[in-house]
UniProtKB/TrEMBL annotation:
GO biological process: proteolysis
Domain of life: Bacteria
Pfam family name, one: Peptidase_M1_N
Domain Aminopeptidase N-like N-terminal: 21-184
Function (record text): Aminopeptidase N is involved in the degradation of intracellular peptides generated by protein breakdown during normal growth as well as in response to nutrient starvation.
Positions in coiled-coil regions: none
Source species taxonomy: Bacteria, Pseudomonadati, Pseudomonadota, Gammaproteobacteria, Alteromonadales
NCBIfam families registered for this protein in UniProt: pepN_proteo (TIGR02414)
Protein name, per record: Aminopeptidase N
Any one GO molecular function term: zinc ion binding
Length: 850
């Protein structure tokens, strides 16, 4: 498996301007006919090399002349032709086997329907093609299939023809007028329920909106439809961006490797991000459906109209689109809570990735398997980089930059540099140093020392930046880091934006009333770690007095972290009384309950481990458990009181009710650890009239290993046995069991409804175990690592993309002690030694073992 390098990029020697595709759909023997208008760009190039994998070639013809087998070269990944003409018609017929396509890339079957997934390099599993994002073609697609079994035949663009053909089959033709790269191609054939609506754009055009779901699920599609309309309106209001085709279709499928896919005019979604109703979806599910619908819709401009020159530029579309969906969610909901959740995700998932053997810059420079680079770094850190740009050039500058970006690049495949240049030119800010964020991996640390001159009432901050020494970075350069701060004095608070551009810099603030408490990186203004000595008292001042709600939450997390580290070092020490007082005062404070819920939630295992160098994982688990038990015990009646006062008699999805539920369920989690109130958990479970409360009680019962657990779990499974997405939740919760864990995990693997072939199901059990059950994943016997490795080996043969995602917690061993690292590496070596190891896994295990 050869790596590809960004530095080797060459523009294509040939391009394909138009493609006419016909799919004669059969489960095992689909015939694909591709008629392409090809042009030579580089006149010195005589060989046309087309990508193709897992294909059976039927015929090749140039300008109507069939080629004999000795007139082309064929191997496992390409078809090469010698070409005389500059412009010619190339016709290729291939056969494919959608039913046995368990990798879910290219054309495959999900349940009873045919669907496609072409990003990143799946189109080459459909036909031989220039499967690269800088070849933009105009597509016409004809789909032919049995009319009864597949009444809906869909593809990108607008429908231009339909007819009945022989043998009970029918044919539908679609045309997409917007030239696009092959990764945005889509086809769906199936029998669905259809939810239809319309949207009138700002300029008055009528757009048909269609959501296709499995039969019987239409009532679960209304929230997705409302989300789509909100997204369309938001993009018009915020960036003046209108939808461009006459129809926007979304199809929900159960078998899908990721969340959703932004194919032009025909999004294909994991049903998890479409279907939601009060009985089956949690508040978080409703939020996520809205966010993913928005994300895919926003790609229509940031990704589709302006696309990536090459896959190294993936963050051009993904970082920017995540930033756009985060901004949208923040406008629809609580800004502070959204920001806290973005940061939690970044610290829990991206920071560890950025310190792992697979660390890479947001614009990677070396790739073996592109599917391995749909990462937290490219997406989430990529969004943080865009957010910093936004902060540096300001909201107006950013909007002007976006407008200039579309003016310059609409209809083209471009680079991250092109985007930053548009921002720099529109706002007249020099962003050359800022571009270092695109080329450097690793989470920077910013160290700050504070000096206060009492006589002059002058504050000085000595600030320095430090970069981890990672093999992936040849050298390290200083970054341009925006540092938003708040200075809290008796007279109130003042906000400043500092720009750190050098290795060390000093910032001075004069005329202060008294020595201020300093809140650094308010609103998490840069994706860095911070070293700054602060007293508990200063952190408490930030919690009570900072204007920035993110900083109030962050200060609270710092207090928890401090206590957890103290408990790791001295397990039998008493939990600090000041911390208990802080928790109590948050519990009893006025204000936003959603924010309070976030403030009362302890840091996760991964956030803690992230700050460790060489720690035994069990020591983290023990420290967290001690802290949780102590808080729960000491403040039991306060939790009960807040729990009771936030109980609701009727279920509603307004922001206040969602916030109340969040707070109440955090309280319940603590109450499960106090003898007096643990029974409230099963009471809530059986009385719940919504999934948020039901699943909160169920998972609390599992994590606290309550006596009613088996009755609750049986009741839940019985009630929801026919609802796939809810059963995924059941598997996720069951993966967190604390007693006889491995026997129970085996029983879950053996259960009738478990299959590794469905990525949601695989992730719900195996992913949830490795990510959310640290006590047992990291158990001293190494059984947790073995369990994961065994599943990864099984998945290698079924779906390498999913296997390679699930291996992540096993390769992030660097923060643990040597003994733990050895156990983890032993399992990685076992994976490395199997026959036919897929490229996806090979890249990751090689990096981990090098
Ligand atoms: N752009 C989409 C990425 C995606 C994907 C990538 C590889 C393999 C399968 C995939 N499914 C979707 C999703 C997005 O970021 O919007
Ligand atoms: Zn995306």
């Amino acid at each position: 498996f050869q790596p590809r390098f960004l530095s080797d990029y060459q523009s294509p020697a040939f391009t394909i301007k138009k493609v006419d595709l016909t799919f004669d759909l059969y489960d095992n023997d689909t015939l694909v006919t591709a008629i392409m208008q090809v042009s030579r760009i580089d006149k010195s190039s005589k060989q046309l090399r087309l990508d193709g994998e897992h294909l059976t070639l039927v015929s090749v013809a140039i300008d109507g002349q069939l080629l004999a087998a000795d007139q082309y070269q064929l191997d496992d990944s390409s078809l090469t032709l010698s070409i005389e003409q500059d412009d010619f018609t190339l016709e290729i017929e291939t056969k494919i086997d959608p039913e046995n396509n368990t990798a879910l890339e290219g054309l495959y079957k999900s349940g009873g329907a045919f669907c496609t997934q072409c990003e990143a390099e799946g189109f080459r599993r459909i036909t031989y093609f220039l499967d690269r994002p800088d070849v933009l073609a105009e597509y016409t697609t004809t789909v032919i299939a049995d009319e009864n079994v597949y009444p809906y035949l869909l593809a990108n663009g607008n429908k231009i023809a339909e007819s009945s053909v022989e043998n009970g089959r029918h044919s539908v033709t679609w045309h997409d007028p917007f030239p696009k790269p092959s990764y945005l191609f889509a086809l769906v054939a199936g029998d669905f329920d259809l939810l239809s609506d319309t949207y009138k754009t700002a300029s008055g055009r009528q757009v048909a909106l269609e959501i296709f779901v499995d039969k019987g699920n239409i009532e679960k599609a209304h929230h997705a439809m409302a989300s789509l309309k909100k997204s369309m309106a938001w993009d018009e209001q915020t960036y003046n961006l209108e939808y461009d085709l006459d129809i926007y279709m979304i199809v929900a499928v159960d078998f899908f490797n990721m969340g959703a896919m932004e194919n032009k005019g025909l999004n294909v979604f994991n049903s998890k991000f479409v279907l939601a109703d009060n009985a089956t979806a949690t508040d978080t599910d409703f939020f996520n459906v809205e966010a993913v619908i928005a994300h895919e819709y926003f790609h229509n401009w940031t990704g589709n109209r302006v696309t990536c020159r090459d896959w190294f530029q993936l963050s051009l579309k993904e970082g920017l689109t995540v930033f756009r969906d985060q901004s949208f969610s923040a406008d629809m909901h609580s800004k502070a809570v959204c920001r806290i959740q973005n940061v939690r995700l970044l610290r829990r998932m991206q920071f560890p990735e950025d310190a792992s053997p697979m660390a890479h810059p947001i614009r990677p420079e070396k790739v073996v398997e592109m599917n391995n680079f749909y990462t937290m770094t490219v997406y989430e850190k990529g969004a943080e980089v865009i957010r910093m740009l936004h902060r540096i050039v300001g909201d107006d500058g950013f909007k002007k930059g976006m407008a200039l970006y579309f003016e310059r690049h609409d209809g083209h495949a471009v680079t991250c540099d092109d985007f930053v240049d548009a921002m720099a030119d529109a706002s007249q800010v020099d962003l050359s140093q800022f571009k270092v964020w695109y080329e450097q991996a690793g989470t920077p640390t910013v160290k700050v020392e504070k000096q206060f001159d009492q006589a002059k009432n002058e504050l000085t901050l000595h600030v320095s930046q430090h970069h981890p020494d990672l093999p992936v970075n040849k050298t390290t350069k200083d970054l341009l880091i925006p540092i938003a701060i708040e200075l809290i004095t008796q007279a109130g608070s003042q906000s400043h934006l500092l720009t750190l551009s050098q290795a060390q810099q000093t910032f001075t603030f004069k005329h202060l009333e008294n020595e201020p408490v300093v809140a650094l990186f308010t609103d998490f203004s840069a994706p860095v770690k911070v070293e700054f000595e602060q007293t508990d008292q200063a952190l408490n001042t930030i919690i009570t007095d900072a204007k920035d709600e993110f900083s109030r939450w962050d200060a609270c997390q710092s207090l928890f972290m401090r206590e957890i580290f103290a408990l790791i070092n001295a397990p039998s020490k008493a939990v600090s009384a000041t911390l208990l007082a802080t928790v109590s005062s948050i519990l009893n404070s006025e204000g936003d309950n959603a924010l309070k819920a976030e403030m009362l939630t302890l840091p996760s295992f991964d956030e803690i481990a992230e700050l460790c160098d060489s720690v035994e994982p069990q020591a983290i688990c023990r420290a967290v458990e001690t802290l949780k038990q102590t808080i729960a015990g000491e403040l039991a009646s306060e939790f009960k009181q807040v729990f009771t006062s936030n109980q609701q008699t009727t279920y509603s999805k307004d922001a206040k009710s969602i916030a109340n539920r969040a707070l109440k369920n955090v309280c319940l989690n603590y109450m499960a650890r106090s003898e007096q109130y643990a029974s409230m958990v099963s009471k809530q479970y059986y009385e719940a009239d919504n999934m948020t409360d039901g699943i909160a009680a169920f998972s609390t019962a599992v994590i606290a290993n309550l006596p009613d657990l088996s009755a609750i779990s049986e009741h839940f499974a019985n009630k929801w046995k026919d609802t796939t997405l809810v059963m995924d939740k059941w598997y996720s919760v069951m993966a967190q069991q604390q007693q006889d864990t491995f026997t129970k995990l085996q029983a879950l693997l053996d259960s009738e409804s478990f299959t590794l072939h469905n990525p949601n199901r695989a992730r719900s059990l195996i992913g949830a175990f490795a990510m959310n059950n640290p006590q047992h994943f990291h158990c001293e016997s190494g059984q947790g690592y073995r369990f994961l490795a065994d599943r990864v080996i099984e998945l290698n043969a079924i779906n390498p993309q999913v296997a390679a995602r699930l291996i992540t917690p096993l390769i992030q061993f660097g923060r643990f002690d040597q003994a733990t690292q050895q156990k983890m590496k032993r399992e990685i070596s076992r994976i490395a030694s199997i026959d036919k190891l897929a490229r996806d896994l090979k890249e990751k295990v090689s990096a981990a073992l090098s």
